[in-house]
Design a protein that fits this description.
It is a single chain. The protein has 15 helices and eleven strands. The strands form three sheets. The chain has a six-stranded parallel sheet, with helices on both faces. Strands 7-8-9 form a three-stranded antiparallel sheet, with helices on one face. Helix 1 crosses helix 7 and helix 7 packs across helix 8. Strand 7 and strand 8 form a beta hairpin. About 35% of the residues are buried. It is of the alpha/beta class and about 375 residues long. It folds into two domains: about 210 residues, Rossmann fold, CATH 3.40.50.10540; about 80 residues, formyl-coa transferase, domain 3 (2-Layer Sandwich). It is about 35% helix and about 15% strand.
Length: about 375
Amino acid sequence: MTILTGIRVVEIGQVLAGPFAGAILADLGAQVIKVEKPGGGDDARNMGPAFRHGDSLTFHEVNRGKSSLVLDLRAPEGLASLHALLGDADILVHNLRPGVPEELGIGPDAVTARHPRLIYCAMSAFGHVGPLRLRPGYEPLLQAFAGLCSINGAPEGPMARMGASVVDLGTGMWTVIGALAALQRRERTGRGGVINTSLFETALTWAGQRFNAYVNEGRLPERMATGHANLVPYQAFDAADAPLMICCGNDRLFARLADALGRPDWATDPRFARNRDRLANRAEIVGQIGAVLATAPRAEWLARLSAVGIPNGPMNTIAEVAAEAQTAAIGLMQKVPGEDFSLLGLPISFDGERPAIRAGAPRLGLSPGAQTS
């Protein structure tokens, strides 16, 4: 993919959020130079068992297509080398610990004054303003702090962390969105600027519906397991042999479901006819649906519900979704050039073409795929 050909990115990224932003830009065609610290580089290189070339799988996932440059930013020569890079760069992405850029003399004010066309993207844990602006943070901490854990899990169970790193990856995405918007603005004005993103802001955004409901209506959310606070039925059910997900997003779909399950009377029952009625009688209608579904195997229900256009699907494990024909058809999993493994690419296509992973992750201080001596 050549959409960002000619765009040069300097990434001072650690672990996940910063490197993921760099990986997106690299897949889109930008030249991404990853600046790493002496003595081992990005901590993510050791975040898990060695996968290839001594580095973890996590490191390979979010550092594909980049080159690596080791610089000691606490040494004058290291800073001079960084500024030489920034002089020709379009975008700087960093998720350095809050306060460290200012200690090093590479805070946003100093850098943008010296490089006025540069788009300076700073990622933090809690935000660039406020009493917690200097606190560090990681994914589970921000899921907990922002209330995401409080809305995840079964009603009778404890709070639970979401299994995916939605906050780190989301912050990387918001950073790229901001950088691309700033590039467009620079076309008009000739000047760069500062983009601020944070794990806290991303986490609050993902909790937005529940947060807005509390602020505006005073409603504290309940943990719903696979269910939905505002729609019924919109959750997983157990068939005779395995679970499936059923999503009736409106009353028309519910009427079809009632008919497909052999209970057309539900669609005219005043307790269940409309979604707000079903919300008021959630336990009763969910229980009745569950009792019917338990009488036949999942495959039978999937076929019957799909035939009448009711959104449904199996509750897949990772192994099961890897074996799905649709997974293969979309081509998201890509062979990494020069390597013997594959990674998921970007979930976006341009004119029907998905950006290809252009190269593997770099060895420390080297270009992508370069061999050590």
